[in-house]
Amino acid sequence: MRRRAKRDLAMLGGIVAILLVALFANYMFGLGRNVEYYTRMRAQAEEQRAARGYKLLSWKLVRDTKWTRREGPTFKDELMARNETPVDIVGFMVPIDRYRDMTDFLLLPLPIECYFCNMPPREDVVLVQMAEGRTANRYKEPVLISGKLRLNEGSKAKFFYVVEDAMLTAGKEGGPLTEQRIDPRHFTPEHMQEKVAPDLVEGYEPPTP
């Protein structure tokens, strides 16, 4: 009887293991497929804007920034040349403390639901500060951000790149902007404090909702 019970448990454990492997493989496949899908969506918007004469700030240049906790970021000369100048960049919106009537938010090369749950590398994060009197809702599609680039140097820089006095339009000229909401629980102070990972975003202080 004991042998049979052990055999049944072993069989059950094997089935569970197979299911877990299948789920993980499916998740990784879906993740890779989503990355490809959103990268292509952004690239199409960038190509269209470039064809209209926009000299876009490229994510490759932005992501080439090297940094250490002690020294802070080291920017490429090409990027430093654009400091304190008007720039245009296409990316996906990520809210900080709300998803409607935002005066500031984050811009990333790929979309994530919550900055505090899925913290991206610091060199992937652009802080966008809307022009005075302007606000924006969170949109599903990539957006075109136009404003003045400010590069933050030093070990205490919370965000390496800031686009100030920003204006927002659809990534593709005349394209749709579909408002996207997320679970309000992502914006509670408790959630933001619990999810912040100091080893990824050293010195970052969650904003007050």
Write the layout of secondary structure elements.
Layout: H1 2-51, H2 59-63, E1 66-68, E2 72-74, H3 77-80, E3 86-94, E4 104-108, E5 126-130, E6 143-151, E7 161-170, H4 189-195
Parallel strand pairs: 5-7
Antiparallel strand pairs: 1-2, 3-4, 3-6, 4-5, 6-7
Would you write up a description of this structure?
The radius of gyration is 21 Å and the shape is globular. The chain has helices spanning 2-51, 59-63, 77-80, 189-195, and strands at residues 66-68, 72-74, 86-94, 104-108, 126-130, 143-151, 161-170. The protein has one domain (45-195): OB fold (Dihydrolipoamide Acetyltransferase, E2P). The longest helix is centred in the first third of the chain and has 50 residues, at 2-51. Mean pLDDT is 79; it is low at 15-32 and 194-209. It is of the alpha+beta class. It has 4 helices and 7 strands. The chain has a 5-stranded mixed barrel. Strands 1-2 form a two-stranded antiparallel sheet.
